[in-house]
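ok, trying the design again with the full structure, not the truncated one.
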């Protein structure tokens, strides 16, 4: 017999918000010297990579580029961090899909995995934060497959084999 889940009261809900536990996404107001700046924080994952994305609305004082987005990855511009043009396209694809490449700026902290999986994790986190910003973006991003976490990962090694499926060389005698 399954036990029923306990109901969470409003007081308990507020306690979890105060402790700062982050599930997948949340809206935060950051206190700066200039005042406060609102942003949307989400987490995107791909293989072993995890990307924490902060999405801000672009101000008039921010630098403007016509052909690329304003995204910084680990305190570098994403064009510096990812040397490959295909990875640039992966990172900015959610913004290009919504035709709002110059509307937002994002700061990303990414760790783990290789550069291709890091680009995929950034794309996933960026798409999630865009949905937090405006729920109407969800339909387009979902149809493009940006909100679905890619479940493909490295297969585990099995006993008696060299890798997941690679067997030792077989000899007849």
């Amino acid at each position: 017999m399954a036990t029923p889940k306990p109901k969470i009261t409003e007081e308990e809900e507020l306690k979890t918000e105060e402790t700062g536990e982050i599930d997948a996404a949340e809206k935060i107001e950051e206190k700066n010297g200039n005042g406060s700046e609102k942003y949307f924080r989400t987490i995107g994952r791909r293989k072993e990579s995890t990307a924490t994305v902060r999405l801000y609305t672009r101000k008039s004082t921010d630098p403007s580029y016509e052909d690329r987005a304003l995204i910084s990855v680990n305190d570098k511009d994403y064009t510096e961090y990812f040397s490959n043009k295909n990875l640039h396209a992966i990172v900015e694809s959610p913004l290009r899909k919504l035709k709002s490449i110059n509307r937002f700026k994002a700061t990303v902290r990414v760790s783990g995995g290789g550069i291709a999986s890091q680009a995929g994790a950034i794309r996933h986190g960026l798409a999630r934060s865009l949905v937090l910003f405006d729920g109407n973006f969800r339909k387009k991003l979902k149809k493009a497959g940006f909100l679905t976490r890619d479940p493909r990962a490295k297969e585990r090694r099995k006993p008696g084999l060299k890798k997941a499926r690679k067997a030792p060389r077989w000899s007849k005698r």
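Keeping the full-length input from now on. The longest helix spans residues 115-133.
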